[in-house]
Design a protein that fits this description.
Four Helix Bundle (Hemerythrin (Met), subunit A), mainly alpha, 5 helices
């Protein structure tokens, strides 16, 4: 397996850790929305980056989901959720983690839906690259 695909799969495994944390925290009535949504944002970020790795698209270090999605779109890879949803998740990466204000840009249900959609999409995108790589190596 090529290094870029190994990195893509590692990124998906890391996303799965955040998905697990999101699910556990979502069940706790005392968990603050900003902490729950932090894990959703992180899972989406790592899933987007997994596809970027798989497609061998260079990107800068960023938590900005809309920037990562734009980079994918520029390379003919359509992301399954729109920029408005990604924009609403963005502040949970850093801003809301260091602020005690209660600003709700989304619900837990929104976050779960978007996170699950991006994760499933990322896995399918990486699967396509893996399949193409396997076909290429068997033809050689």
């Amino acid at each position: 397996m090529t290094p870029h695909l190994e990195e893509a799969l590692r990124s998906l495994r890391l996303a799965d850790r955040d998905i697990y944390a999101f699910r556990v925290l979502s069940e706790d009535a005392h968990a603050h929305l900003s902490i729950i949504c932090f894990h959703a944002q992180q899972a989406v970020e790592k899933s987007l980056k997994a596809v970027l790795f798989a497609q061998q698209i260079e990107f800068r270090r960023t938590h900005n989901l809309t920037e990562l999605a734009a980079l994918l779109r520029q390379n003919n890879c359509e992301v399954p959720i729109g920029d408005e949803a990604l924009w609403r998740l963005n502040p949970y990466a850093v801003t809301f983690r260091y602020d005690d204000r209660d600003i709700e840009l989304l619900t837990r249900e929104d976050a779960a839906s978007w996170m699950n959609a991006i994760r499933a999409w990322a896995e399918s995108q990486i699967g396509l690259v893996l399949q193409a790589e396997n076909e290429e190596s068997s033809d050689a």
